[in-house]
Amino acid sequence: MSSIFTKIIEGEIPCYKIAEDEDFFAFLDINPNAVGHTLCVPKKEVDKLLDLDEETYSGLMNFARKVGIALEAAIPCKRVGMTVIGLEVPHVHVHLIPLQKMANATFQEKVSLSKDEFEEVAARIKSHL
Ligand code: AMP
């Protein structure tokens, strides 16, 4: 069965899309640690980061770098943090999180956004790509 992220990539499940190229896809996390929390995903469905082939691993990091630079320009923050966990969704994804404080990186505090707010944030990030 396809992962929830493959369903997002294939348009079967909606998302707030940020960027896409031939091999990678970025969209807003639906339960964000902070405004602008973005996930970068390889289209190739692999569970664990370290199981990616070298080319996909490097490509994912380069893609996340481009998205992260746009995120840092779009969302006021001290810096953009990058983390990989994967305990919830078994399809590799890089979390890009605008950080103001350590709590934004811990997945303990969450922010709640309306559909309009998600759309506005996605548009703001995309305008810096
Ligand atoms: P983890 O697998 O622990 O790295 O966490 C998975 C992340 O995916 C969590 O931060 C979720 O909020 C996020 N997530 C799960 N389902 C969706 C979805 N349909 N759209 C956007 N983000 C999602």
TrEMBL record:
Query: Could you tell me which SUPFAM superfamilies the record lists for this protein?
Result: HIT-like
- Source domain of life: Bacteria
Q: Name one GO biological process term.
A: nucleotide metabolic process
- Which residues does UniProt mark as catalytic? 93 (tele-amp-histidine intermediate)
Tell me which residues make up the HIT domain.
4-107
InterPro entries hit by this protein: Histidine_triad_HIT, HIT-like, HIT-like_sf
Q: Where is this motif: Histidine triad motif?
A: 91-95
Identify the Pfam families for this entry.
HIT
What is the official name of this protein in its record?
Answer: HIT family protein
Signal peptide, first to last residue = none
Annotated GO MF terms: catalytic activity
Native species: Muriicola soli
